[in-house]
Amino acid sequence: MPRDGSKARARLRAAALDLYRERGYDETTTAQIAARAEVSERTYFRHFADKREVLFDGEAELRAILVDAVAAAPDGLAPLQVMVRAFSAAVPLIVANRSVAEQRAEVIAVTPALQERAYAKTAGLTDVLEAALSARGVTRPTARLAAQVGMAAFERASRAWAGDPEVDLAALIARAADEVLTLGGT
Amino acid sequence: MPRDGSKARARLRAAALDLYRERGYDETTTAQIAARAEVSERTYFRHFADKREVLFDGEAELRAILVDAVAAAPDGLAPLQVMVRAFSAAVPLIVANRSVAEQRAEVIAVTPALQERAYAKTAGLTDVLEAALSARGVTRPTARLAAQVGMAAFERASRAWAGDPEVDLAALIARAADEVLTLGGT
DNA sequence: CCACGTAGCGACAGTCACTGACGCTATCAG
DNA sequence: CTGATAGCGTCAGTGACTGTCGCTACGTGG
């Protein structure tokens, strides 16, 4: 295993986050990111597909946790409850990454281009969840619906948690899922 | 009001859709689109913010219908039922645009860059729906949740309708909303 | 019928994200 | 010590997008 690029990759991640926060996404060039990470611009593009991807580098880990949790859920559990379990399984990871996630969120919040990528990322996660539910025997269209509704509940819980990180995120997720079922009235 | 750009704009829309279908999104340049529409490349960018936007030009109309329908819904209706009404109000527009929407969908389906933009567009719609629900007195977080769940139900209905355009889309929407409420089990 | 103001347009130059190709080098297995 | 390989730098190139400037088509007021 010649040369370990993970160091450079980590430096690029940090450099990009810093620069995006300092002067904004649009005002920083990939050349500047590369320079701060002390690599060539070409190397940046060897590690990340484009200027946006740097900010979304941890996704695979989350994805794996969600898929495993769906697969491990007991048989006969209702789809939405499976989603609650899956997202609850990811809570430790989310809590651990909270401070970095906050900084990322600040940048994304003021950058349409990054919001677009963020939407695509969550869409990718719902695709994976849909497939995982489908593997459990849930019909495709229903699996997709459940994945999206579960994701919506998770987002609702995440936002509440962001405003008050003291409460248990897992509890908020369960509560948000319950709230979904009250949306139809009576 | 000197010069009416709407003609050129329409030609650009048609030219882009044609080219994207003929040779694919990545393989067509904005210069080619402009050339086929018989305008300069600069004019393309006066009408559309970027290479993707050409394909998403009708959105404002849909947005207006949804907002109006939410505002016009009777008081005391449950949030999810309001969503069903809103999307049902948009059915005529959707049916009318079906053939063009199909062509667009084909291109989007094979182009990640366009999928990303499509996600952003639906996110924009849910934002608007959230605001409209909020204006009816629904709490912000609940409004957002309802908007997202409603959008998920609408997508589920749309997909079913795409596979069988004979059935009534409005009925599918109502059914999808009901299905959401069964996702939690018992 | 004629200035005249305005919105759209073309032309041009420039920046920057991103890609392909080539050759080099650090590192590890043998 | 040597060879294989993954990561890297350099260079050249394409194409999306922007700012600027001057022009022109067209409806309006005289």
Structure, explained:
The structure is a homodimer of 186-residue chains. Chain A has 186 residues and is mainly alpha-helical. In chain A, 74% of the residues lie in helices and 0% in strands. Chain A is built from 10 helices and no strands. Chain A has helices at residues 6-23, 30-36, 41-47, 59-72, 79-89, 91-96, 98-109, 112-135, 140-163, 169-182. The longest helix of chain A has 24 residues, at 112-135. Chain A is elongated, with a radius of gyration of 19 Å. The termini of chain A are far apart. In chain A, 35% of the residues are buried. Chain A binds chain B through residues 77-81, 112, 115-117, 119-120, 123, 141-142, 144-146, 148-149, 151-153, 155-156, 159-160, 176-181, 183-186, and chain B through 77-81, 112, 115-117, 119-120, 123, 141-142, 144-146, 148-149, 151-153, 155-156, 159-160, 176-181, 183-186. The first copy, chain A, binds a DNA duplex (30 and 30 nucleotides) through residues 1-5, 8, 29-31, 39-43, 45-46, 49-51.
